[in-house]
């Protein structure tokens, strides 16, 4: 593969999905044909458009043109629901899912639906992927952040809002089961990030989804300071 080919790439699966009408894949193959003003106005993190092409606001990915493995052009907004609980053994655990795309273990979450708030999306995705419903939870909604997603390019990227619920101690952990985009859902030991990584490897033979490493490190090592919002 020469340099030009290495810098311009869209996964064939994205193109096939777009042709098939999949809702996650934009059918427009040329970003200069997009009306970018509405998308820029709605963006959670501002970004530039130069000569009709969106510009990643945070990093150079090595793929300057194309969507890499993401279906959309420009920003796609998501929300993630991190649920922490202390089990009867006194150890803190985090509810994680094993992604069906083999990218690793992640915080439950997904893309926002039209007109949906990040908190509403996080709560919905949590139920869809794990079966867990928390009607009385006090959620902490953190500021929007850029996601260092390995599937991104310089023209297609993800941003997310992390929502955290701390359930405290209980006689037993709530029952969960993987569904939708989750092959499995498990309560992983999470007294700190290093413990989480070790438990994933030793118990489940897994690794953390690269895009969620920073979020998990910060959430497990520091208190979340955002004000609670009701679901």
TrEMBL record:
- Annotated Nudix hydrolase domain ranges read 74-213
- Residues in a coiled coil are none
* Domain of life of the organism encoding this protein: Bacteria
Record carries keyword Chaperone? no
Q: Which InterPro entries match?
A: Nudix_hydrolase, NUDIX_hydrolase-like_dom_sf, NUDIX_hydrolase_CS, NUDIX_hydrolase_dom
Gene Ontology molecular function: any one:
hydrolase activity
UniProt keywords (A-Z) are: Hydrolase
Which family would the database say this protein is a member of? Answer: Belongs to the Nudix hydrolase family.
Name of this protein = ADP-ribose pyrophosphatase YjhB (NUDIX family)
């Amino acid at each position: 593969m020469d340099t030009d080919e290495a810098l311009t790439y869209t996964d064939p699966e994205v193109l096939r999905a777009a042709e098939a009408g999949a809702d996650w894949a934009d059918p427009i193959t040329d970003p200069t044909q997009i009306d970018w003003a509405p998308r820029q106005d709605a963006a959670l993190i501002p970004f530039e458009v130069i000569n009709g092409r969106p510009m990643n606001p945070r990093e150079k990915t090595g793929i300057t043109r194309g969507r890499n493995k993401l279906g959309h052009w420009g920003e796609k907004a998501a929300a993630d629901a991190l649920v922490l609980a202390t089990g009867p053994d006194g150890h803190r655990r985090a509810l994680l899912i094993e992604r069906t795309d083999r990218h690793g273990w992640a915080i439950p979450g997904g893309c926002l639906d039209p007109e949906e708030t990040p908190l509403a999306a996080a709560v919905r995705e949590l139920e869809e992927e794990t079966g867990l419903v928390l009607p009385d939870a006090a959620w902490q909604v953190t500021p929007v952040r850029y996601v260092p997603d390995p599937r991104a390019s310089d023209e297609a990227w993800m941003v997310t809002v992390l929502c955290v619920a701390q359930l405290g101690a209980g006689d037993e952990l709530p029952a969960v089961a993987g569904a939708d985009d989750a092959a499995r859902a498990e309560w992983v030991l999470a007294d700190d990030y290093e413990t989480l990584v070790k438990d994933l490897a030793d118990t489940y033979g897994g690794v953390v989804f690269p895009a969620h490493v920073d979020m998990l490190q910060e959430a497990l090592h520091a208190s979340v300071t955002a004000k609670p919002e009701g679901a």
